[in-house]
Specification:
Bound molecules: zinc ion
Largest sheet: 7 strands, mixed
Structural class: alpha/beta
Radius of gyration: 20 Å
CATH architecture of the largest domain: Alpha-Beta Complex
Number of strands: 16
CATH class of the largest domain: Alpha Beta
């Protein structure tokens, strides 16, 4: 079968290779892949940042956002049957550590990911542990099913802390999951939704997806804190979602959030960052760190929202490409074109 592999420990280093179809071992299922999304993590692997180089053994098949149909099961599998239509959770938590035992498997420090430490979904077939299987409703399309994994992060972030119902919120950073957070916040009853980014293209998408106000923070005249306060009776937002990982954006979130409000941090900074702890402390801001999704309550909530048509993720799909053109999908996203690129194996 054809598979997109990281083959060389360098920037780029990707190759479409002909590899053997994998066989599921005990406790594993094999999925005939329908669609796989290209994620920011895949771009990180392309760019060979420390997250990738410290975790990956090469060659490895990329891809952790995928849907498909179960076509083979290993010994002892009880949660899946042949022909099940499924999406794949990406946290292969250990299930044995203190954090896992405390019901926080998404924070397990022994977590492995398909497409990073294990072979993933940019291939015709992928083998995963059965506990990663999410049985998907037939009302969901295979394309949307491939987007549950990232959408689950936006849902988890939206429901964390005091949630978003009735809240004025700032979404700082409008990549695919930031955009999904705008959609989720709207569906879950946010009052005002304000979005910031440095890309006019992304801000236009944010507006089309339901943001009340978009602010280009690269514009020196934009004065985002004033704009946000003007829209919120001088108070600032109740909740800021930080998706960019950029220190300046976190600083904006700190200043744009009302005293006693919440910062929800999702974007991972590239390294240690200077943070204005004094402002956080004096304003009594609560910080929630969002890592992945809750297993599997985020999936349940995501399913409700999508199945009951409270949200529509279709507008986020900018390109659907055959696997043999996957490298073009990477190029589009690295150039900042496109939102969610879905890849269809043979
Ligand atoms: Zn991802
Ligand atoms: Zn664990």
């Amino acid at each position: 079968m054809l598979a997109l592999c990281k083959v060389l420990p360098e920037i780029g280093g990707l190759s479409l290779e002909e590899v053997a179809i994998p066989e599921p071992q005990a406790g594993e299922v094999r999925v005939k892949v329908a669609f796989t999304g290209i994620c920011g993590t895949d771009l990180h692997i392309h760019n060979w940042i420390p997250f990738a180089s410290s975790r990956m053994k090469l060659p490895t098949i990329l891809g952790h956002e995928f849907s498909g149909v179960v076509d083979a099961i290993g010994e002892g599998v009880s949660k899946a049957s042949i022909d099940d239509f499924v999406s794949i959770e990406s946290h292969i938590s250990c299930g044995r550590c203190y954090t896992c035992h405390m019901g926080q498997e998404n924070l397990c420090m022994n977590t492995r990911y398909p497409g990073v430490e294990e072979d993933g979904g940019f291939a015709s077939y992928a083998v995963v542990p059965e506990k990663l299987i999410w049985q998907q409703s037939s009302e969901i399309t295979p394309q949307i099913a491939a987007m549950f994994e990232p959408f689950g992060i936006a849902v988890h972030a939206s429901l964390k802390g005091r949630g978003v119902s009735g809240m004025n919120v700032l979404v700082a950073g409008c990549g695919p999951i930031g955009l999904m957070n705008i959609i989720a916040a709207r569906a879950l009853g946010a009052n005002r939704v304000i979005a910031t980014d440095v890309s006019p293209v992304r801000l236009k998408q944010a507006q089309e997806l339901g943001a009340d106000k978009v602010i280009n923070v690269s514009d020196a005249k934009s004065n985002p804190v004033k704009t946000i306060k003007d829209m919120t009776q001088g108070n600032g937002v109740d909740v800021s979602f930080e998706y960019s990982g950029v220190p300046e954006s976190l600083d904006l979130a700190i200043h744009a959030t009302v005293a006693g409000g919440e910062l929800r941090l999702i974007g991972v900074p590239a390294g240690p960052s200077l943070v204005n702890l004094e402002a956080i402390l004096l304003k009594g801001l609560t910080i929630h760190n969002i890592s992945g999704r809750k297993l599997f309550s985020s999936w349940e909530h995501a399913s409700k929202l999508i199945r009951d048509k409270q949200v529509d993720l279709n507008p986020l799909i900018s390109h659907v490409l055959p696997l043999k053109e996957v490298e073009r999908g990477f190029e589009l996203l690295l150039k900042g074109e496109g939102i969610k690129v879905l890849v269809q194996p043979e």
